[in-house]
Every structure is written in C-alpha cells, then in structure tokens.
Automatic annotation (TrEMBL):
Organism from which the protein derives: Marimonas arenosa
InterPro entries assigned: P-loop_NTPase
Stated name of the protein: Sulfotransferase family protein
Domain of life: Bacteria
Amino acid sequence: MRHDPLKALIHIPKTAGTSMNAQLAAHGGRGRKHIEQLAGHPWRLARLAARADWVSGHLPLRDMQAQLGAVTDRPLEIYAFVRDPIAQVASHYNWWYVVWHRGPLSWWRQAAPFRALSRRIRAADPTDPDQVIAILRDNAPLFLNMQADYLLGTRTAMDPAAIRAALTRLAFVGLNDDLPALCAAMGLPAPKQTPRRNVSPYYFDKRVFWEGPVRDFLEDAHAGDIALFQAVQRMRGKDRAAPADRPKPR
C-alpha cells in the first residue's frame, strides 16, 4: 500500500490543461487524466488512487478533495494553474465553434444542451456585442467566473488576502503561460519548449472580448476570475506582465 502523496492536477477548461496532461503522461509516471469520468464509480477511483503517481481532471478543488479523500488515505498534493480570465472566456466561447468544425464524432459526443449552445453561438453575429453578452449572461455557469469557482468555491470577487489564504490549500498554483514553473513544482523536467496541445483556430475576431461593451460587461460579471488571476500574478511575481494570449489592439 502506498503512503506517498498522490499528485492531483485541477484541469480548468480552456487553460492549457491538455498540454500539462501531455507532460504528466510523458514524465510523471503512472497516472490518468479526466478522472471526472470516474464519478459514480468509487471502486475504480480507489484502485487508481492506490496505484497512480498522478491524476488530473475537470474537478473543482472541493470535489477533487472529497472524491479522492473518500477512497484513499494517501496525502493529496493538489496543483492548478489559471489563465487570463478574458482569454479563457474567449477560448471557451470559441470551443463551441470548434466542436462543430471537428466533424461528426466531435459533434455527437456533446450532450444535447451543448449542441444547442453551439448552434446559438454559430448563428450569432460575433461582431455584435449585445449578442455575445446575451449568450454569456444566459450561460453564466459555463462561461463566467469558472476559475474562481473551481479553486475558491465562489463566483464572487474576493479580496487579495482572502484569495491567497484560500489558495494555501493547493501545493502550487501558477499561470498557464508559465508551464515550466508548474512542471518544476510537480517534479517534472522542464520542457525544452512550452508544449501546445488542443490549440484551435479562432472562428471570429476575439478582440471583441477585450473591447467596448463586452469588456465592460466582463469587468463586472467576471470579477471573481479577474480578482483570482490578478492575485496569482502577484504571487508569481508577474503582475506587470501582459498575458501571452492577449490580442493586439486594433
């Protein structure tokens, strides 16, 4: 029976988690990604937790702790990283174009409500801020403050001191454009170049998310993620750095 820590990566959607999963698969020993697929199968999760060096999944911190804690006595080391909150929303919005353009296998793998969302997004005018805002507002749990919900358990903005205190439950939290730092924290070799997996072209001009009414809407409605990202930037000493995936102004 293993008593060493089990490393667990919280994979927040559209934050480059696929790239980190590839690093773990190549250098992290025995493990499994997408452990959210084991929900409802505690015996399978228990068997995995008894043998694995690492796991990864689309699970908020509260669920990662609860589900793994229920099936193993091994200590948990939980890791995560966050992405520029505007870029994460833009990427997630674009994803619903991607699932269509990837073909029938990708399309029919999606649940019916997500196919309906994809149809609505693809039918909308992405240059019309009002249409974009309406989609974001109507699907707030999917698009707004997801990173804060995953790591802090709330979708409302917290002050920086409270965020730092909450993040002490994690072994490490970093920025998605600095994967070498997360690799080092998880005991993996530094990649020779930053890996890029599951990277898709944009099917609209993503600058709409950084400009005018959409940006104004996100400054308020997405404040939980913005506060979290700014706090992690300060923790990592990169509060003056512009995220790599922020588009150039028009």
